[in-house]
């Protein structure tokens, strides 16, 4: 008999009823465990505790674990530690269309705070790539729970293992022509009032960081202006750098070019700050409108970028139906597209791939080589020109 909870609740506010908490799950191991957890929720929290120092990873892992646990209890009426391989196959199908929608999907696809009664685990159906990513994360969780001695086996270990394929070319980036449309839109933004001028300056500086620096959106939100520093090169010339604490707590040095420093100085002056930052200065890289000096959240930064892309797309549509395809592409774009655009445009300009790798903080050249669009374009053009059938 299924025991139903009234509505999904976030992990931090979830209390599982007896019989569904996993204390007697059919997949529980019965030997010595390496964790103190005696129920599924405690075991899941023990796994998540390993990632608390990296917010983005923690948020993504918690989201997928939370979704599965709630689905197991609400939809299947069984503890997480009783899920079988067949259950997980059904769950994969569920991710493509979480139903019933009123229970699982936030109204209008809006992201409500976790404390809000309107909060839901999903914002809509997951794309195939997101479905795969969810199952990869869950496989990591199950494998750890088995290693910790909490579960007897990993129900995902029976899934068909696909041969590892080479990385495809990056496709989520803006061509130089489309990037020019975005810059033109930013320059045309209204600047009649003090607030509009401040917003325009912020947008221009944010897009400078994302494009010239190739920064991730989370890196913009978590780093400060005090991380800019200058040092002399071998010729004695001072050069500015930005030390970025990035993904996986890895640090990298991003060249703060003359262009970037000019834009930084302009932005700082609009906020009443000295042109150049001081060492260790705690000012966030991008500031809220007004007097606040608190860093913007990832969601707030993301919204600023999406609004710019949306505005530029609307401007394209106003020029005629022949611009619809380009406008559609802009509306799909996100902040990460600017990072991909930075890598692609550097590669197109024949910047040494080793330098592109270090600028973007890639672990290997294999990742960076995905930006070599020029090689693909040349291959296509020369094949068409030189390999013909000529009926």
UniProtKB/TrEMBL annotation:
Species, as recorded: Paraburkholderia ultramafica
Top-level lineage group: Bacteria
Cellular component GO terms held in the UniProt record: cytoplasm
Domain Tyr recombinase: 169-385
Transmembrane segments: none
PROSITE patterns: CB (PS51900), TYR_RECOMBINASE (PS51898)
InterPro entries (alphabetical): CB, DNA_brk_join_enz, Integrase-like_cat_sf, Integrase_catalytic, Integrase_recombinase_N, Tyrosine_recombinase_XerCD
Region span, Disordered: 1-33
Statement: the UniProt record of this protein carries the keyword Transmembrane: no
Protein name from the UniProt record: Tyrosine recombinase XerD
Keyword Nucleotide-binding attached: no
Residue ranges of domain Core-binding (CB) in the record: 42-146
Xref: SUPFAM superfamilies: DNA breaking-rejoining enzymes
Pfam family, one: Phage_integrase
Gene Ontology terms: biological process: cell division; chromosome segregation; DNA integration; DNA recombination
């Amino acid at each position: 008999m299924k025991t139903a909870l009234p509505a999904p609740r976030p992990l931090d506010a979830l209390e599982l009823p007896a019989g569904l908490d996993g204390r007697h799950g059919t997949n529980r191991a019965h030997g010595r465990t390496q964790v103190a957890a005696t129920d599924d929720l405690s075991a899941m929290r023990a796994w998540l505790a390993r990632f608390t120092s990296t917010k983005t990873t923690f948020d993504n892992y918690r989201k997928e674990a939370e979704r599965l646990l709630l689905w197991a209890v609400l939809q299947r009426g069984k503890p997480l530690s009783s899920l079988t391989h067949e259950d997980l196959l059904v769950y994969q199908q569920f991710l493509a269309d979480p139903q019933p929608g009123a229970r699982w999907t936030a109204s209008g696809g809006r992201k409500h705070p976790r404390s809000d009664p309107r909060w839901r685990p999903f914002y809509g159906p997951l794309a195939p790539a997101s479905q795969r990513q969810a199952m990869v994360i869950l496989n990591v969780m199950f494998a750890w729970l088995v290693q910790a001695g909490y579960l007897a086996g990993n129900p995902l270990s029976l899934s068909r293992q696909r041969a590892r394929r080479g990385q495809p070319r990056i496709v989520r980036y803006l061509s130089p022509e489309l990037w020019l449309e975005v810059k033109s839109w930013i320059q045309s933004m209204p600047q009649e009032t003090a607030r509009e001028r401040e917003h325009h300056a912020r947008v221009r500086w944010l897009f400078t960081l994302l494009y010239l620096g190739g920064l991730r959106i989370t890196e913009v939100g978590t780093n400060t202006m005090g991380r800019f520093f200058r040092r002399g090169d071998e010729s004695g010339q001072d050069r500015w750098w930005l030390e970025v604490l990035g993904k996986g707590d890895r640090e990298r040095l991003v060249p703060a070019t003359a262009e970037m420093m000019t834009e930084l100085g302009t932005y700082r002056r609009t906020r009443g700050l000295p042109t150049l930052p001081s060492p260790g200065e705690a000012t966030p890289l991008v500031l809220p409108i007004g007097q606040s000096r608190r860093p913007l959240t990832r969601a707030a930064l993301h919204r600023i970028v999406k609004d710019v892309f949306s505005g530029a797309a609307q401007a394209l549509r106003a020029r005629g139906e022949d611009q619809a395809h380009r406008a559609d592409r802009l509306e799909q774009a996100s902040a990460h597209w600017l990072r991909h655009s930075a890598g692609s445009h550097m590669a197109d300009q024949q910047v040494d791939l080793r330098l592109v790798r270090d600028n973007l903080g890639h672990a290997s050249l294999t990742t960076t080589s995905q930006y070599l669009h020029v090689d693909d374009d040349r291959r296509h053009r020369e094949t068409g020109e030189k390999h013909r059938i000529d009926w």
